[in-house]
Amino acid sequence: MKLNTLPADPGSLQPRKRKGRGMSSGHGKTSTRGHKGQKARSGGYHKVGFEGGQMPLQRRLPKRGFKNRFKKQFALINVGDLAKFDAGTTIGVEELQKGGLLPKSMVGRSGIKLLGNGEISVALTVNVDLASAAAISKVEKAGGSVQVATADKE
């Protein structure tokens, strides 16, 4: 027996309640809302987290730390990852995406930072937003160059 051939659960095949269709339907008059009260009124209910006037949990708990909404987050690429490219290639965002080094989730970040982990023996021209000193020296030692787009991003 397979999951897609199991007989349907009778509870999942119940017809929906047709509310407000007369007294004989069993769901007429108050339309299953009961008599009076906040839940019987149109538009009458609480906002999320309301606890009947008690101080809500999100306000009772202590707040900690600070989240900077404007923090710059960089996609990190290591020098060792660039060894898969051919010599003389100019590497930018498009080439990193095609090479599988820059996932789509990292594209909307503040930029790309080149780090010095790994070794490289291929001469490449690398266009990035930031680069560590170790990464620049390794790429230049291999005969390539690193072009940092802006110096004010930090």
Count of DSSP E strands?
6
Overall geometry: elongated
Per DSSP, what share of the residues sits in E-state strands of 2 or more residues?
Answer: 5-15%
Helix count? 3
Largest sheet: 3 strands, parallel
Q: Please state the CA-atom Rg, rounded to the nearest Å.
A: 31 Å
* Termini separation: 60 Å
Structural class: alpha/beta
CATH class of the domain at 74-148: Alpha Beta
Unreliable spans are: none
Overview of the molecule:
The structure is a single chain. This protein is α/β, with parallel strands linked by helices. The protein has a domain at 74-148: Ribosomal Protein L15, Chain: K, domain 2, CATH 3.100.10.10. It is 12% helix and 14% strand. It contains 3 helices and 6 strands. The protein has helices at residues 57-60, 93-98, 133-141; strands at residues 74-78, 90-91, 111-115, 125-128, 130-131, 145-148. It has a 3-stranded parallel sheet with strand order 1-3-5. A 3-stranded parallel sheet has the order 2-4-6. The two termini are 60 Å apart. The mean pLDDT is 89.
